[in-house]
Amino acid sequence: MKNIFTLILLSLISISTFAQRVVLGPPLNTTGAEYNPSLSGDGKTMIFTSKVSNMYDPEFMVSYKTSSGWSRPEVLPVLNTKIKTVFTGDYTLSHDGTIIVFATSKYGGVGAKDIWMIEKKGNAWQASVNLAKPINTIGDEGDPCLSPDNKLLYFVRYDGTKTAGGLACGKIYVSERIAGNVSWKEPVALPSSINAGCESNPRILADGKTLLFSSKRTGGLGEFDQYISKFTNGSWSSAKPMTFLNTPKDDRYVSVSAQGNTAFYTVTQEKSGQDLAMSTIPAELQPDKVLYWKGVVKDAATKQPISARIMITDKKTNKLNTIQANSDGSFNLFIPQGDSYDVAIQSNEKGKVYYSTLFELETLDKYTELDKSIELKAVAPTSTIDLTNIRFETGSAKLTSFSTPELNRAVAFLKENAAVKAEIGVYTDKVMEDSVQAPDLTEIEIDTLSSETDSLGTIAYDIEKTYHNDRTPKQAKAIADYLMSKGIPASRISYKGYGADALASKRVVLVLKP
Do 23-285 and 379-431+470-514 have matching folds? Predict the structure, then answer.
């Protein structure tokens, strides 16, 4: 009876999975075998393995999603060599589509199987580079995957044990790239909530918090099953099985783009063998929503790409993450829901003004794409820099700590451009006034309308007081005082409160002067 019940249960699971599954059609799937998909963050580039027939070795392919569907797959030369060295499934495409990390035993490595990286500059893939120690050891490393900002590498170190079906077991590690992008820190094993004894295939998703991985553990359906864990409040949650995907067979190599609602994976069918398929991810298992911002940093005068860096400050934690734009000026940012983010773009060369903006994503409820390039102007008289992320306490001219990153950028800019003078200009959206004081009308203007002279001298009479909310002069002074407190000479700073301006409401600007 127990065996019968198990068969019925597995049958129901298979039916449920099949009901959600969509097997991809041509040109991705052929009469041969296609397997192990890896997608870019925007979901528009897919690399996978294809084996047309048993007469040919597997080939690594790439396809691009267009308005009319997936393009005809092309051979990916950087992974295809005369001697096949890349192991099945041991590769991923980075979220921004500019890096492939893979595992191979080819010559030039540290150990038996090492992790390598190939970067794309412009339209050309560069030569592969071994990640060396401490990532690679004399043992086997594999299943590499990069975080959305390409600064963390998740991978597996195999321990020599295998499942009953002969699949290699290992632990999942993570390593952080050292500033300058030339080397990596000592890898750290993920906690026991993830590493239960036999793991493989970690995939960190676009929110940077959700980890998919394969595991052979108690309670699974077969060989490797897919699990999910989320990093919240400083720790990884207990792993949950992805029951909508798991089968009694080997379930590995799942890929999810930044949209976060669809899983791409390999399915084995009775007649056609291995094919690429996709399934909708249940809402409770989906990663956090993200804002995907892609663009190019350009010189405002020449319209040519320039070298630049993007600085993202999480306003809740004040954690700063600096990302270099690609060599062609392009950038791809994946910013998760839940917080406000101060984002600034600065040229790596002197003589350019900078750009800043604020993303308030506390209530982001869907995947959002922003296609916006940024043009940076040369430093020149009358150039204007929006100090977008300046905040004052309610009903006050006192600066809040929220403003610190923006203020410090202005300080750094003025120190770097020592010959520049600047005016701080502050505007508000609406100025109100009344003869009666009110909660928001706390600023006082006194009009002396008459006076009287006697033997003791002249006495002025304050006949009328006007209460208003125009704090822009005091706010401009507060900013100037902060800049001067950080070493900017008073001779280089002027300030003015402009009051209400319909076109410049609630705006703070730094205007350069001759």
Answer: no
Closest CA to 141 of 129, 159, 167: 159
3-class secondary structure per residue, 269-312: ECCCEEEEEEEECCHHHCCCCEEEEEEEEEECCCCCECCEEEEE
Q: Residue by residue, what is the 3-state secondary structure of 88-155?
A: EEEEEECCCCCEEEEEECCCCCCCCEEEEEEEEECCEECCCEECCCCCCCCCEEEEEEECCCCCEEEE
DSSP 53-86: STTS--EEEEEEEETTEEPPPEE-TTT--SS--E
Residues 6 or more apart in contact with residue 444 via CB below 8 angstroms: 465, 466, 467, 468
Amino acid at 272: S
Asked if residue 475 lies in contact with residue 397, where contact means CB atoms within 8 angstroms, the answer is: yes
Q: How far apart are CA 229 and CA 236, in angstroms?
A: 6
Residue pLDDT, tens place only, 33-91: 899 999 999 999 999 998 875 556 788 899 999 999 999 999 888 877 554 556 656 89
For the record, the structure tokens of 137 come out as: 């050891």
pTM of the model: 0.87
Which candidate, 93, 71, 67, places its Cα nearest to that of 148?
A: 93
Which amino acid, residue 125? Answer: W
CB 19 within 8 A of CB 245: no
The residue type of 163 is T
CATH topology of domain 23-285: Neuraminidase (2.120.10)
Say whether the peptide bond before residue 134 is cis (omega within 30 degrees of 0): yes
Query: Where in the chain are the domains?
Result: 23-285, 289-378, 379-431+470-514
pLDDT tens-digit map of 132-147: 999 999 999 999 999 9
Please give the Cα distance from 331 to 333 (Å, whole number): 7
Question: Which option is the CATH number for 379-431+470-514: 3.40.50.300, 3.30.1330.60, 3.30.1540.10, 2.40.30.170?
Answer: 3.30.1330.60
Q: What share of the chain is helix, strand, coil (3-state, %, to 5)?
A: 10, 45, 45
Q: Domain 289-378 is in which class?
A: mainly beta
